[in-house]
Structures are given as structure tokens and as C-alpha cells.
Amino acid sequence: MVDGVAQRPTLHARDVSVTYKLGMGKRLTAVDGVSFDVEPGAVVGLVGESGCGKSTLARAICGLEPLSGGAIDFGGEPVTRLGFARRPRPLLRIQMVFQNPYASLNPRRTVRAQLEDSRRIHPGSAPTVAQLLDQVDLPASAADRYPHEFSGGQRQRVAIARAVATGPDLLIGDEPIASLDASLQARIATLMQTVARETGSSLLFISHDLAVVRLIADRVLVMYQGKVVESGPTEQVWNHPAQPYTRRLLAAIPVADGLGRLPEVLPLDG
């Protein structure tokens, strides 16, 4: 709420369902009646085991999957499935950072060229390429290199810079740390949180790693078999989980020396 006036959620999802046809008259409901909001500037974690529907929901939010039921509203604009026509300009302010940093960048174009493409989408005055790289702790000299010249963690930082270059209102991280070394995971997650805070974007961070999500998220949504079975402030869900499934997820977090310690966040160097 600003000056007594309630703010419109950045993202408003109501009764969202996504169903796939399997043939022989069979169907698979990957997302089943999910409802939630992402408020302006919020960091929301979406957690659950592999196959629970997290990535399908993320793709639906971006218009990459058709809805079989419900609706998604982004800043007052209904999200519809992407087709061959140009995407409505307001929906360009949803940007996703994908899981595989080796597949998400064009190997034949320099970092500068790919960032410049995204800068042209920015609705206002876009940061320079050097400023974008600085935001993700990469030197300005990285602009004239190609993706194959970077490590996995560095490529993911380039992907974050490319998403931020558009001036998004909503960043979505679709398991953006899953393919990285354990030593990098918490660092990249924290970087995404920091960049979102600095740019005023909301962040929907999708992961099966509850310890990392606890490190960065204001709120948590727990997904199981296509449904959101629990949601609330991160510390409340962590310390007082209401659902047996959430308790099982928390119990599965590795424990070091008998203590449920959070991942150590070290300087970015990979």
C-alpha cells in the first residue's frame, strides 16, 4: 500500500490449470487450480519436488503454455499464449532466467549484441551494457566475449543481465541454480535477489532447494502434484509448516554437524 492506496499485484493468478493430452483419451493435469499473487517488489519462492508442476506454471505465466482453466493477469494485462504474432509490449516486462545457462544464450553472438537486443525493449532509459554487467559482477570486458568463453555461473549472470536489460517488472527464475555447482547456487540466488531489489522488480524464484529459497524469499509457495498446498511468510512456513508434505520437504534438507545451517554465500568468482 502506498499513501493509503492499495497497489495492484504485479502478478495475479487465479484457478490456473494446465492439462496435457497423453493420447488414448488420457490427460495429465500438471497445474491444478493454482491461485496466488506476487506483489510489487516482492521475492516469492515456489518450491516442490521435480514433476510437481513448478516449471509448467512458470511457462504458463510467460505465455509459453496454454491454460486449460483460470486466468493470469500481469499489471492489468491478461497473459495469453504466445503465438506467431509479436508479443504484446506490456508482457515483455515478464522475463525468465532458465535453468540451463548453456542453452539460453546464442553461442554465435557476443554478450554485447545480446544485451543490446534486450536494451531496445526497455520502456525508458536502459542501463548501459557496462552498467548491466557491473550489476551482475562481471567486468565491462565481458561484453565482447562469446558465451563459450564463460563458466556456467558466469553464463547465468549474463542471462540475468539480459533479462534485467529489458526493464522487467517481474523476473522469473525457473530452477536457475539447478545445473550449477553447489558452491555457486546460493551465490546466484542471492545475486538475483539483489538485482531484483536494486531494479524494483518482483522475483518469482522456482527451486526444489528450500534452504536457498529461505535465504532470499519473503514468501514461499509449496507445490505438490500440481497444487499449491501451503503458502505464507518464509519463516512461518519454515518454522511452523502446516502440511505434512512441507514437513517432509524440510526434513529432507541436508544437515551439517547437527545444525540446519543455511548455505554460505561467498563472493562471486565463478
From TrEMBL:
GO molecular function, one term: ATP hydrolysis activity
Keyword Signal: no
Alphabetical UniProt keywords: ATP-binding, Nucleotide-binding, Transport
Alphabetical list of Pfam families matching this protein: ABC_tran
UniProt feature coiled coil, ranges: none
Keyword presence, Nucleotide-binding: yes
Residue ranges annotated for the ABC transporter domain, each copy included: 11-250
GO biological process entries: transmembrane transport
Similarity comment: Belongs to the ABC transporter superfamily.
PANTHER family reported for this sequence: D,D-DIPEPTIDE TRANSPORT ATP-BINDING PROTEIN DDPF-RELATED (PTHR43776:SF7), TRANSPORT ATP-BINDING PROTEIN (PTHR43776)
Listed name of the protein: Peptide/nickel transport system ATP-binding protein
Organism of this sequence: Branchiibius hedensis
